[in-house]
User: What shape does this take?
Amino acid sequence: MGEVRDLDVREISAAVRELCITANYDLPRDVYDALVAACAAEESPVGREVLGQLVENADIAARDRVPICQDTGFAVVFAEVGQDVHLVGGTLADAVDEGVRQGYGDGYLRKSVAEEPAQARRNTKDNTPAILHTTLVPGDRVRLTMMAKGGGAENMSSLNMLKPSQGWAGMSQAVVDTVSRAGSNPCPPVIIGVGIGGTIDEVTLLAKKALLRDVGSTHPDPRVAAMEDELLERINALGIGPQGLGGRTTALDVFIEEMPSHIASMPMAVNVQCHAQRHKTVEL
Amino acid sequence: MAARKITTPLTDDVVRDLRAGDAVEITGVVFQARDAAHKRLVALIEAGEELPFELQGAVVYYMGPSPAKPGDVIGSAGPTTSGRMDAYAPLLMRHGLKGMIGKGLRTQEVKDAMRECTAVYFAATGGAGALLAQRIVGNETIAYPELGAEAIARLVVKDFPAIVVNDCHGGDLYEEGRARYAKVEAE
Assistant: This one.
């Protein structure tokens, strides 16, 4: 055991502020490269036109320091906190919210969070609260990942409490059906995060965490990698194409995260992500 | 793709001439309105009150921008999912609305109203908000500033790129485009 390290929560707020802004202005390189490659490979003329616009849009956003998309998202923050860190000056949750408040204000990002969702739907005006997922990890560092999650793609996601008898055949069909039903709504080409196993809370979190992987990366377990490849091929056979206007590029990639399930259950969640896959990580 | 240039407000003749799959560049005034604004517009119509803009021939853009930086006309300004406005769109068409710009699927009821009222649905590229903002040259909030990004604004667009998805003859590019490239049966 090392010594406990003090970390002022103001450093966390400053880091989250910066993550919110840069995640929204700079499309990650892996996504950018995938869009360029898809543009070259797409058979549909209108699909190529759309993909070309998306590449140009990313260039403009990075150059002019403006958001890639006007829906700058719900701020989803993953905090991996080293158990030898002592946070001083306030709570982690307050510090993250303060960073979101500053980032969405100073970065000219849209405030897209409404309170009393079933009734008044009043905008909270500063994009708080953030969604905060905290895990304790070894060490004396804090690793923060910010994901700007837009509403259009999130709305097309699904939770599927399947029967074990349905097996992978039933499960894979449910993933494809989710993307098929979504059609043009989630701004294809999409990235698909699939959670398998656990409970309803854990399976949806697995699906979201799956979206943090780099587009084009291969799962370290060849069995899971084969499942991902099968899903990607079936999804791209749907014909939905860029923006749903017809074409071969419906998804840029499919990522699976898995854990054991109850003997009675076979939970599966699909988290749909638009092509504007915005996330960024920093370590303090 | 060669784009056809059209100007707003739209006439029935122009709308009838548009076909699913046509690329267009729109110039003129379009009205920014999304969820909360639509709810209020429909309430005004149902109460028999005056609307904040002339609906006859109008084009609405389903969009809520990010805040403009100092010196900019508007922030990022791409389309939002149109389906959330499906509950309101037929009534607006019956009161003169001729065009809708958004992205994503519409219900059969909306498509039927487009045929009945001679109206058209355009898709702009979702997630291309920085690019599309460059085609918006005027921006004035005309109603409900308290709604922030959901306020109604009078936007002036120049050569705004869009594609006809649903025309007034029943054409549907989402169905036709997908069928052309599908290798498997749709669900």
